[in-house]
Amino acid sequence: MDVYEVLFQKCLEYEVIIDGKEIPLWKLKKENLDNANFNVNVQWDSLQDLAISIYELKKEQQNSKELIKFPIEEILVAMAFLKSKTKGYLITDDINNINTCLSHLSDLITARLNCIFRYYYLMKKPVNTNIFDRVVLKFHQQKNIKVNNLNDFQKIVFKLKNLDFEY
After folding, report:
1. Which helix (H) or strand (E) covers residue 147, if one does?
2. Listed residue (46, 157, 55) closest to 111, CA to CA
3. Model confidence over 2-19: pLDDT tens digits?
4. Which of 70, 103, 129, 158 could form a disulfide with 133 if both were Cys (CB 3.0 to 4.6 A apart)?
5. pLDDT, tens only, 121-134
6. How far apart are CA 43 and CA 125, in angstroms?
7. Helical H runs in the chain?
């Protein structure tokens, strides 16, 4: 099982709210999405808010010597199920906003990995590592890394969005 399959499985365990009950995402059905009482249970209101939040996390990570903790499963689930606001934003299309979020997430992970190699790689394993960090720490890398994971993240988001729970 590769790291993206593990991440996909973790996303399936994320709990959403239907009719006031928390259920894991893997129990979700298409008819639940149309239910007025369906709540994805994330901290953002729209895809635009999520994109801004990820961008701010990336800037914070680039300027920090510490690892910034962020809920990658929640971010991916939010990308799959949040809608775009239609007023007050330049981009109101869901697909464009998802692609913006994916781009910012990829940049955030690149910034995180660069932080690990800059400050922690040769000294010690940081406490705040996530599954991606653990995989990357096993391999020798250059100091300035550019991670190319957009296709993998896009695959996860659209499998969640389409309720296709086979990885």
Report:
1. none
2. 55
3. 788 889 999 999 999 888
4. 129
5. 555 566 677 766 66
6. 29
7. 3-12, 30-33, 47-62, 72-81, 94-115, 131-136, 150-161
